[in-house]
Design a protein that fits this description.
The structure holds three protein chains of three kinds.
Chain A (H helix, E strand, L loop, with lengths): L1 E11 L8 E9 L3 E5 L6 H7 L3 H4 L4 E8 L2 E2 L5 H4 L3 E4 L12 H11 L4 H14 L15 H13 L5 E5 L7 H18 L2 E6 L11 E6 L2 E6 L1 H5 L2 H6 L6 H11 L11 H20 L1
Parallel strand pairs in A: 3-8, 3-9, 6-7, 7-8
Antiparallel strand pairs in A: 1-2, 1-4, 4-5, 9-10
Helix pairs in contact in A: 4-5, 4-6, 5-6, 6-7
Chain B lengths: L13 H4 L2 H17 L3 H17 L4 H25 L6 E5 L2 E4 H27 L2 H10 L4 H30 L9 H32 L18 H22 L6
Antiparallel strand pairs in B: 1-2
Helix pairs in contact in B: 2-5, 2-9, 3-5, 4-5, 6-7, 7-8
Chain C lengths: L1 H6 L19 H20 L2 E2 L6 E2 L2 H12 L1 H19 L5 H19 L6 H26 L3 H33 L6
Antiparallel strand pairs in C: 1-2
Classes of the chains: A alpha/beta, B mainly alpha, C mainly alpha.
Chain lengths: 289, 262, 190
């Protein structure tokens, strides 16, 4: 099943002449972990808000085309109704936590959905456990670290039992450790629970090993899409999307420009070392014959 | 003033465990009692009773001192100002120029000062022992609509956040030599504008994200939403409720039905 | 519980919530009122300029009451101004003023928001709004302190000059804030 299907989608904010989003076709499978890469203003946020109908229902503008989540046409439903399909996490941890304890934060969604009380308390324990915040039920979100705040925001979405999570630059304010923790929780959700995960990011490197696919965006358009490693090894495509390629990928492409032999493919120093030793080894053997 | 002082401290006393609605009612009824009591002696008894409750609430010395400092200053001020405006009665104790300070006026001033002391301190029983979360829950239970209760809860949650925002923008502006501690009030207030504008803009952006978050978390999906935690009256709460009502009712009956002077 | 529960995250066929009926105010309103109330309380608490008479402190909370009223209308002015100022009283330990404050600042916000936005918010309307709103606030405090809280005529009168200064400065700062904030966020106040 497709988790998210966009067809001929265009969206324009009021008073703007440029389309903020112009996507002829985009499909994301159920259970896929997709990273959408692009610079500020590429349309990542608009795309994420499209997934549960906040665009164009709450943030108004000129909209055309069709958006479906799990084969449900988004415009037909309210944002509340879609909350059991799509969980949202925003960039700013501070402004998406509004309760006075972690527990209340996670319980808020199911309470609104009129879920029975013991079921809510089960979901709260379960969701806090999944994001590694077990036992912090009574802590004020205000006193949590940045990484804990974002994980709490994920738990608050999970308690509504969505089948897809959409995260808009969730690691924006986090330190490297916090990022890795966050991404590995998302990757667990995908692996163990079949969760569809869509992450909007500006920076690709941390996400290579977790993602099934990279989608590159620039100026509201999808410019390329494919397996993460392949995308990263194409510095040209990355730069078109305004994403700075990993340094080692640049090195590889520079070397490959001058080489007649099959291209070198590496993304990290370790990989480069391995690749170059093997290749030069072959090379010298060839010459000695 | 830096940081935000929360009068509440987490303890385990009978006052902390008491249903917040009973505490709210107690504040109201004891205030009414202080209003109808006319004799200094009984007001002093009431004030001592309130202070005893504060001791039983095991409130921290720092917070109690902070709170009482304000009350005492207030009481002194009222005692001093009262006789200046009330010159009825005899004997005249002494005169300052054309002003005659009379003995009954001094007593009336003291009475009113103690009464105001009761008004002020009775709130501390509530604020020292009730978390903001329970306060909002109590108000919602008392009939405040869920959506307005949510707005109130959100505001309590964000007060320290915005406090910190103001504080950090203040520091940044001070580094650029903006005067906030000197100059006339008018000048300082104007300088505050350059701090408050960015604070408000930040807060309004926060409100935008908050609105999106609320919708994404199914705000308002059903009007008969459920609640994970709800406050409920227990036997001990009913006992306390009865005591609170009697504390007002008995003196009120004595005064208005039996005509006792209290 | 864990096993079933966890399998359940992804339902075999993702199911959408059916029905739903909301009688609550819009999420935008809840968020805006919550934030404005918090701002009013935080600014009241954080911008204290020590000033001797009675209540003992002079603050710019008033400016937020006028800001909310002028930028978002009388309802926001009344609710956020009243509740925010009362919350500040409560948290700062002036609980006995809270009910009066709720009423006084609520009335101030309501009146200022109604009059100040007449004819699309002309300068004279702002000025009139500040004067009338301020008059409501000062009268409410005076009557409550004199008759209800029993401060005596003396202490109640002693507070009036502070309150007048607070209205004058709060009104000016509030108007400036409304102007500058609208300038940097043009989508506001429509």
């Amino acid at each position: 099943m497709q988790a998210l299907t966009l067809k001929d989608v265009r969206f324009r904010y009021p008073g703007m002449s440029e389309w903020a989003l112009d996507i002829p076709s985009l499909e994301i499978r159920q259970g896929e972990f997709v990273t959408v890469l692009g610079p500020n203003g590429a349309g990542k946020t608009t795309l994420s808000l499209l997934a549960n109908g906040l665009v164009p229902k709450s943030i108004k503008g000129e909209f055309e085309g069709s958006v479906e989540v799990f084969e449900h046409p988004v415009p037909k439903y309210t944002v509340s109704q879609l909350s059991t399909l799509v969980g949202m996490v925003f960039q700013e941890p501070e402004s998406q936590l509004f309760c006075m304890s972690a527990e209340e934060e996670v319980a808020f969604g199911p309470e609104n959905l009129a879920v029975p009380r013991d079921e809510i308390s089960r979901r709260v324990e379960w969701a806090l456990d999944l994001v590694g915040l077990k036992g912090l039920n009574d802590r004020s979100p205000f006193t949590l670290s940045g990484g804990q705040k974002q994980r709490l925001a994920i738990a608050a979405a999970l308690s509504m039992k969505p089948s897809m999570l959409v995260l808009d630059e969730p690691a924006y304010a986090l330190d490297p450790m916090g990022r890795i923790e966050l991404y590995s929780i998302l990757s667990d959700l995908k692996a163990k629970h079949g969760m569809t995960v869509i992450v909007m990011e500006r920076d690709a490197e941390d996400l290579v090993e977790y993602s099934d696919r990279f989608v590159l965006m620039a100026n509201g358009r999808v410019t390329a899409s494919g397996p993460p490693r392949e995308m990263l090894m194409d510095p040209g495509a990355l730069r078109t999307a305004g994403v700075s390629p990993p340094q080692m990928a640049e090195v590889a492409s520079l070397i490959n420009l001058r080489r007649k032999a099959p291209p070198l493919r590496f993304l990290t120093v370790d990989e480069a070392f391995a690749e170059i030793t093997i290749n030069t080894h072959h090379h010298s053997k060839g010459e000695s014959h | 003033m830096t940081g935000f002082l929360d009068l509440y401290s987490e303890k385990d006393t009978f006052l902390h465990r008491l249903d917040p609605r009973v505490k709210l009612l107690a504040v109201a009824l004891i205030s009414v009692l202080a209003f109808i009591l006319a004799e200094l002696l009984y007001l002093v008894v009431l004030l001592c009773f309130i202070l005893l409750l504060l001791v039983l609430a095991r409130s921290s010395y720092g917070k109690a001192f902070f709170a009482l400092k304000f009350v005492i200053r207030f009481m002194i001020l009222i005692t001093l100002l009262w006789p200046l405006f009330d010159r009825s009665g005899t004997p005249i104790l002494f005169s300052i120029g054309p002003l005659d300070i009379t003995e009954p006026a001094v007593w009336r001033g003291a009475t009113s000062a103690v009464r105001v002391g009761c008004f002020a301190t009775v709130w501390y029983i509530l604020m020292f022992t009730t978390s903001q979360r329970d306060l909002v829950r109590a108000l919602v239970k008392l009939g405040l609509r869920f959506d307005y209760g949510l707005a109130l809860a959100i505001s309590f949650r964000f007060i320290p956040t915005f406090g910190l925002t103001i504080e950090s923008i203040k520091d940044a502006q001070r580094a650029r030599a903006l005067e906030l501690d000197r100059g006339s009030i008018l000048r300082r207030s104007r300088n505050y504008v350059s701090i408050l504008v960015p604070t408000i803009v930040y807060a309004l952006r926060t409100a935008d994200t908050l609105a999106l978050t609320l919708q994404s978390r199914a705000y308002g999906a059903f009007s008969n939403r459920t609640y994970l935690r709800e406050i409920r009256m227990r036997a001990s709460d009913y006992v306390a409720l009865t005591v609170v009502v009697l504390i007002l009712l008995l003196p009120a009956m004595a005064k208005y039905i039996c005509g006792v002077r209290i | 519980m864990a096993e079933d529960e966890q399998r359940d995250v992804v339902k075999e066929k993702p199911r959408i919530l059916s029905g739903g009926d909301s009688k609550f105010v819009s999420p935008r309103t809840v968020a805006l009122y919550g934030v404005l109330t918090a701002l009013t309380a935080a600014i009241t608490y954080m911008t204290v300029i020590p000033f001797p008479p009675t209540r003992g402190y002079f603050n710019l909370g008033e400016a937020m009451v006028f800001f909310s009223a002028f930028t978002f209308g009388w309802r926001a002015g009344a609710i956020c101004g009243g509740v925010g100022s009362a919350a500040a009283d409560l948290l700062a330990g002036f609980g006995m003023f809270a009910p009066t404050t709720l009423l006084a600042k609520g009335a101030e916000g309501l009146v200022a928001g109604t009059i100040g936005r007449l004819k699309g918010g002309k300068p004279w309307a702002y000025a009139l709004g500040i004067i009338c709103g301020g008059a409501c606030m000062i009268t409410t405090y005076f009557l409550s302190e004199w008759l209800l809280l029993d401060f005596g005529l003396g202490a109640a009168i002693a507070e009036i000059p502070t309150n007048i200064a607070q209205v004058a400065i709060g009104g000016t700062v509030g108007t400036l804030l409304s102007h500058y904030v609208k300038q940097s966020m043009p989508s506001l106040g429509k």
